[in-house]
Structure formats: C-alpha cells, structure tokens
Amino acid sequence: MKDKLLNVVKNAYAPYSNFGVGCIVVTKDGNEFQGVNVENANGTSICAERNAIDNAVGHGYRKGDFSKIYIMFENGNYGTPCFACRQVIVEFFNEEDEVISVNGNGEEKVYKVRELCPYPFDESDLNA
What we know:
Elements: H1 2-9, E1 21-27, E2 32-36, H2 48-58, E3 66-73, H3 83-92, E4 98-102, E5 108-112, H4 113-116, H5 123-126
Parallel strand pairs: 3-4
Antiparallel strand pairs: 1-2, 1-3, 4-5
C-alpha cells in the first residue's frame, strides 16, 4: 500500500499549508477509492479522508460497505484523521474497521474506528 499512497499524496493540493495528505479507502468488495486534501484561499478545504470517502459514496457505496482506510502524510510522519474526518468515518465505517496510518517508510500504525472515536455522534443520537 505504501507505493500507492506515495503516488496518491503527490496529487494533494496544499499551496497554503504545504501539508499534503493522501488517503485510500478499501471497500468490503475490494475496491479502492483515493482522495487527497484540496485547499483553497478562503479556508473551505477538504481533507483527504473525506475526499476518498465521498469518492466511494459517489460510486454507490454506503454505510457498512467499507473495511479500511489508509492515510499518509506527505512529510512522512504518522498521522490520524482530524475530528471532522473522524465524524465522517463513524458515519460510514463500523467500529471494528481499521484506520491505518502509513509513514514514509511503509510502516503502519493500525487503529480501530472505536479507538479513534470512542464517543461517536451517530444516528442513535438523532432518535433520542
């Protein structure tokens, strides 16, 4: 996955922060969808994780169809999703699915969604 992520993160558009992020989501049927962060001058940017998930949703995937999400920071460090992305991950992934941070050497840190989002806001909160 390292080589795929290295190619994806090169497409990040981060002229303001110079902090590129690449992401690949994997669906349960084995399809992969890529995303990168895309910045703009007024600050209404999109993160790589949401971009990749949105890409899959645009192809018809829904909650429960996802299995893993891989993230790579262009600077080579490990990283985890921001809180806006964590909320979207909770919406589409199951709590036991994996969030995998890959560093520049290809080493992985693996988290469960429930570890990164221990107190999720989800559909059950809307029905209370």
